[in-house]
Amino acid sequence: MFILKKSSSISQIARLRSPKFRQTASNCTLSFWYYNYGQSVGAAELRLLVDGLKKPTVLWRTYYNEGNQWLKAVIGLGRLPHPFQFSLDKISLGVYEGVSAIDDIRFENCALSPPALSCEAPNHFWCRDTKACIDSLLICDLVDDCGDGSDEDSCNPDLQCNFENGLCNWEQDVEDDFDWIRIRGPTPTVNTGPLKDHTTGTARGHYLYLESSEPRRFQDKAVLLSPVFNPSGNGTCVFRFHYHMFGKEVYKLSVFKRTVSNAEGWLLWYKFGNQENRWIRQTLFISSSKPFQILVKGTVGDGFTGDIGLDDMSFLGCTLYNGNLPTISTTTSGTSVPATLPTNNCTEKEFVCRTSGHCIQMMQKCDFRPDCSDKSDESACVMEACDFEDKGLCGWHQPALEQMLGNYSVRITSTFKWQLGRGANLYPEQEQHCPLTDHTTSTEEGWYLFADSSNGEFGHIADIATPVISLTGPRCKIVFWNHMNGSTIGSLEVLCKSSKKTSKLWTQSGSQGPQWNRAEVFLGIRSNFQVIFRAKRGVSYMGDVAVDDITFEDCSPLLISDKPCTSEEFMCANKYCIPKNNLCDFVNDCADNSDESPSI
User: Fold this and answer.
1) What is d(CA 473, CA 20) in angstroms, rounded to the nearest whole number?
2) Domain at 575, CATH number
3) pLDDT value at residue 577
């Protein structure tokens, strides 16, 4: 079908009307091929006309010459319970030079489920009037899948929200950069965002969206908070929602579960980039041994065609918790601080063991050897081995970032800093310069630590440091794996910082290839110092530095034994016992150099 213009009168409209349809099912899609070519070919739009609604809903638009080619349009219609028809309108403003055509119109998955004689299969629901047998995950999801509404009867309104009357019991996070916006109809920017909501499938219905235009900046975040739920075992709590991610510069939508109120929590799901102009359903199964809350976070891309939509969010098999999540207090190294210490007689220069109240020398704290029976003297320290798989930092912390967090006027979202990452979370452009797999598991699901060069500017520095290490032994060394791949890699350094000076122990700069590389740094005997990994940003974002599997090997200090040295050991001048194999090896194993004496 094509348009042939016979008259030159201004503002002509060519209108093609469809037959009238009675209803559609929730997964219904309409597709067609269109051709819009010529210097002054003009715009066209497909409109939905629903019985009982005065205002039509625009489903699709083309604004200009799309080249000498056929292009496919796919439109998600969803559940339309009332009779409707389509109108394809082509508007000419006097000058019409070109060809407009349409072909191969197709409807798919538009019929409701057929009636069934029985519905005894597990995890299924038998509709009351239509007798359709549907998946039980479709119950109470704000969509009439039965065709008679019976799957949406007797649902708890506190567990679902279609945003027709506000945010329900969801809340905007006050700690993010901006808020989600409730709207109906198209978003203000063309070629991005929804044209209609998911609930009604028309411009009359409301939904939430994230506005990516100015004054928003790259990686600004908007976070939506669910109510708090009771613990849920074996994924019995199900979260359903519909999202819309259409636009060339759409960035990221992610869902987290948290059990404390001042943390982002565990990543459950994410999606990057343009997913076309359609609403997409997502189902998440949630397990938690503690009361929990869901966070839905949208992140802005690097342009104004990056709007993201949310609609029809519901929970199944979940119960509301009557209370608030706890707040966890942390030290600068990210470890919990006990409220009170046990009764003790320790001096200010001694460390109090948390369980027993036993006193040990402060030099025995953070020395890679547990001297307290509960190992509390090593609890607020850097861990001896860290693979980042539990999504923690193992005691490593970022001093500069903590200072910024104390100053609420400073933006940290765009700061060059260390953060946890994994291959599964990368967006397409990152895959050229960030590890696709970690070193520990060699999979996309494994975690590592990386300095994200999409933030910051040339020459910016990101430091991540250990808490103060009291004392190490003569053979102490750090072994770690690093990944430095990209056209504008800066550098990675390992530093040793004491109260008097900071010295450089190891450095690497420039691209080292798309693989993990092993590095080993000798520390030896040192006291009251910190180890720092320092990443320096290159000239552009094409150069992330990553580390994984950081291990402190043979770092516990020498221990004077109550027993005499064995025949296989050498007694140092300071009474330490060391293996005889360590004699005369150019390493000060005794800490007093007696094992390297020429008189041995």
Assistant:
1) 83
2) 4.10.400.10
3) 82
The answer to whether residues 99 and 196 belong to one domain is: no
* Structural domain includes residue 270: yes
Domain span including residue 23: 11-108
CATH of the domain at 76: 2.60.120.200
Task: Indicate the DSSP class of residue 487.
Answer: T
Facing residues of 488 across strands?
none
pTM of this prediction exceeds 0.85: no
The pLDDT value given to residue 561:
67
- CB-based contacts of 163: which residues, under 8 Å, 6+ apart? 182, 197, 199, 206, 207, 208, 310, 311
* Residues 229 and 251 placed together within one structural domain of the fold: yes
* 3-class DSSP assignment, residue 375: coil
- Tell me which of 316, 338, 365 is where a domain ends: 316
Same domain, 455 and 407: yes
| pLDDT number for residue 51 | 94
The number of distinct structural domains making up the chain is 5
399's enclosing H/E stretch is helix 399-406
- What letter represents residue 129's amino acid? D
Contact 595, 572 (CB under 8 A): yes
* Dist. CA 341–CA 350, nearest whole Å: 13
Contact at 8 Å (CB) between 87 and 44? no
Q: In terms of domains, do 288 and 185 share one?
A: yes
What is the 8-class DSSP label of residue 32? E
| Nearest Cα to Cα of residue 218 among 281, 155, 158, 302 | 302
Task: List CB contacts of 559: < 8 A, sequence separation 6 or more.
Answer: 369, 576
Read off φ and ψ for residue 378, nearest 5 degrees.
Answer: -115, 5
Return the H-helix or E-strand segment holding 238.
Answer: strand 232-245
Mean per-residue pLDDT pooled into runs of 10, the chain (600 residues): 63 86 95 88 90 93 88 94 94 73 95 93 92 95 95 95 96 93 93 95 96 88 96 88 94 92 86 91 93 95 91 96 82 44 80 86 88 87 91 87 54 76 77 86 92 87 93 91 92 92 94 93 92 93 90 85 80 81 82 81
Residue 260 inside a domain? The answer is yes
The answer to whether position 321 is within a domain reads: no
Helix/strand/coil for 378: helix
- Count the alpha carbons within 13 Å of 421 in the hemisphere toward its beta carbon: 24
Going from the C-alpha of 406 to that of each of 243, 286, 455, the distances in angstroms are 35, 33, 20
Contact 463, 534 (CB under 8 A): yes
Going by the DSSP 8-state scheme, the letter that residue 596 receives in this structure is: G
So what's the pLDDT on residue 335?
41
What lies within 8 Å, CB to CB, of 63 at 6+ separation is 43, 190
Residue 273 is predicted with a pLDDT of 86
User: What is the number of other CB atoms lying within 10 angstroms of the CB of residue 453?
Assistant: 28
Computed on alpha carbons and rounded to an integer, the radius of gyration of the chain in Å comes to 32
418 within 8 A of 464, measured Cβ to Cβ: yes
Give yes or no for a contact between 216 and 299, defined as CB atoms under 8 angstroms apart: no
Q: Do residues 181 and 299 both lie within one domain?
A: yes
As a whole number of angstroms, the distance between CA 115 and CA 126 comes to 9
| Residues 518 and 417 both lie in one domain | yes
User: Which residues, 6 or more positions from 368, have their beta carbon under 8 angstroms from its beta carbon?
Assistant: 378, 381, 384, 469, 472, 473, 476, 552, 555, 556, 557
